[in-house]
Specification:
Keywords: Repeat, Transferase, Ubl conjugation pathway. The protein is an all-alpha fold. The chain is 62% helix and 1% strand.
Length: 685
Amino acid sequence: MIQKPYIPTRRILTFPAVHPCETIAPATLLASLVCLCRSACDYRSSKSFGSSNARNARQTIRQVGNLLILLQEIRFSAVPDSLLLGLSELHFTVQKVLYLLDDCTRDDGARIWMLMESDRVANHFRVLVREMATALEVLPLEALDLPREAMEVAELVTRQARETRFEVGADAQIAMADVLAILSRFESGEVPDRGEVKRVLDYIGVKKWSDCYREIEFHYSNNKEMRRELQLLSSLLGFASYARCVLFDSVDGKSDPPVHCEGESRNDELLGSLDGDDFRCPISLEIMRDPVTIETGHTYERCSILKWFRAGNATCPNTGNKLSSTEFVPNVALKQLIQRYCLANGIPFVDSSRNARDITRTAAAGSLAAECAMKAAARFLADKLLGGDYKWRNRSAYEIRLLSKTNIFNRSCLVEAGVIPALLELLSSEEEDGSCQENAIAAILNLSKHSRSKALIAENGGLRFIVDMLKKGVKVEAARQHAAATLFYLSSVEEYRKLIGETTEAISYLVEMVKEANYRGKKNALVAIYGLLMHSGNHWRVLASGAVPLLLDVLISSDRHEVVTDSLAVLATLAEKPEGAKAIIRCGALPQVVRILAAANPRAAMEHCVCLLLAISINGGEDVVVYLVRSPSLMGSLYSQLSEGTSRASKKAGALIKVLHEFYERTSSTSKATVLPRERFVHAW
């Protein structure tokens, strides 16, 4: 069995080998080197070497096998320095050989890239084999009293390292030329021959839709890391995307993209089992963006732990243990997991540590070939949506769903190709499994993030179709979640906020989702309601739908911070009008809101709590102010927000403190209210 080296952040064709420790025992070093050589020899049975460098890989494995024969004959008596030096260099080189063999047998979508890097890979093999020979020359073989056969093996390895030619095969050179020709045709605005594209994919072993999907995923996932090769990377991405759309009649091994709160992204079983609370900094209670680990093994947000240390604290915030050092290390694995979780749940993630251009967030393609390839693929899918049979229409909707979620440029090409009217028409399809509806609404959701698409959706009667997706009884629950998220994006335009609110039962369907849907459905419905409330005419509609008692129930029963935060945001917006404030008071929400403010919650939740209490105190009458004045924990929570809350929370807290103090001063001669602390009062409004 092949034991592949595991480096979670290793970029393809990089070799993070490590020199052995200078104080390592010779026997331990030799045993480790023998183990590495055996791992390399295990690749002999691999049938997954890329066609372009399979011969070079097998020649290298043969050389490592010969080296293993020699190493197994070494016996120690006296250990000269040159022996340790030679073994250390061999150990270092064989590590790099293992990384290279691992790259040549990758099955995660790097086949096109490895084909185009064939010359570079061949040169790596050449250099590494010669490094092994150089290290062998350092070994004092004569002083080791080796058998004659072992000496002959050493000479053979050294001689073959100098004589063996590591070249790219003729077939690989032809395939590379074909790829470059196809990219050139794209750049000229031509559509390449289907047979030519298929020939390239057949050569590299991309036989199925799922194989091509992995190729695209590889290029997207590496666009930040491989900055120097961005243009070629983008061109190959366009090539693979076009090929996936055009060449494959069916989707094999399809794993439906998971449903997300305001969009879509990759996910897996691990992410599904995690809660956002797992990623919160113990100090700030916010999801970490730059997690670091201190010597106790506990992880914190970098800026939070730095602030802790700079305040003179030399202890672990979690355990209270005294630290011998305030140094910390980045937790890269956790950061990657948090990024994936945020993408999967529609949570913004800003990585300030990276300045590299990210092609998933740009409105332009990374190369001319990528631009033309994407436009050709968009035209092909638009034609299939309009003129294809049901199978191809569903297939095209799924491809649009995938392409539109990846970057801004893809969305632009698809909108320009005219896919939106055809996708809206698919929403009314009545097939049994509901997959066509789900793919169509998911694609519309992704496209609704593009500025031009909002008008096209509205102009083609899309609001009615999308609201219909919210109805209870739609076969695919995921379609309802996508529809709610789509309404959120459309509500960013004032005109559409008004139109959606006026659409029969739109708001009542969203409120029903808050009550009955799963976590993601609740969150999508809440943010959609929040967006619609930006139009003042929708306030009474939300109140009439019975949203307030339902939101209070969410505050009491939900254990998900994100849902609680969104519920508070909706309530705070409703409380800005007297009718909303009175409805909230009638439901008895004040005690629960005060409790939330006094507890350890994310800063966004605390901000909405303060805004809600301020709005109720202004619009709810004097009884509300009396209740707040008499709440023993409230003033401490408000003063805490002055220094630790967000900028908005701090201003609102200052305004609420002012309201409470002014009320106390007016009634101080007759009121039995609790005396308010004055020494910390801050006028922040």
